[in-house]
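Lecture 7, part 2: worked example. A protein chain together with magnesium ion.
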Amino acid sequence: MTRSEKPLFTAAQIRTRVAELAAALSRELRGQDVVSLIVLKGALHFGSDLVRAMTVPMAVDFVQARSYHGTVSTGKIEMLGRPTQDLNGKHVLIIEDILDTGVTARALIDFVEISGASRVSFCALFDKPARRKVPVHATHIGFPVDDVFIVGYGMDYEERYRELPDVYTLVL
Ligand code: IMP
Ligand code: MG
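Predicted complex, written out as structure tokens:
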């Protein structure tokens, strides 16, 4: 497995879209008690760029989740890291790299709701709608993509390619 030579999305395209998402989110979240929850590891760059482009005060926290693969999709995920902030009564903005089957997103939204958040917004930079198994209400999406595996800008294949500023497709 290797990455495509040509980026599918360049760092410049990503920067433009991140600025648009940040502007929309800032309008929506103004005046709210906001906690941005960056989902590790995939959203490390996206989350960092997005919160710095937003113009509302907020707390920033992290969550690390891994979906169980290889078995029936039960909607269960493994929580490897939890936020340290109290989410009770907060408007929580979940920041994800990519929405795929929806299992991880569904579990994260459930976790945030159970934690007492007053509102949940869900923002993913990429979305593969054709792969969805669990319905998820994503309030903000950067780019829809076809059913291809993408790497770079935080996203990995077996822990490789996260450091790349552009996004590539994975090729055989
Ligand atoms: P889901 O639970 O199936 O929606 O999986 C979502 C998670 O799987 C994302 O947060 C990513 O970490 C990972 N993932 C899904 N598709 C891709 C991809 O194309 N490239 C890299 N990681 C992916
Ligand atoms: Mg992820």
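The helical segments are 11-29, 44-53, 103-114. The chain is about 25% helix and 30% strand. Keep this in mind for problem set question 3.
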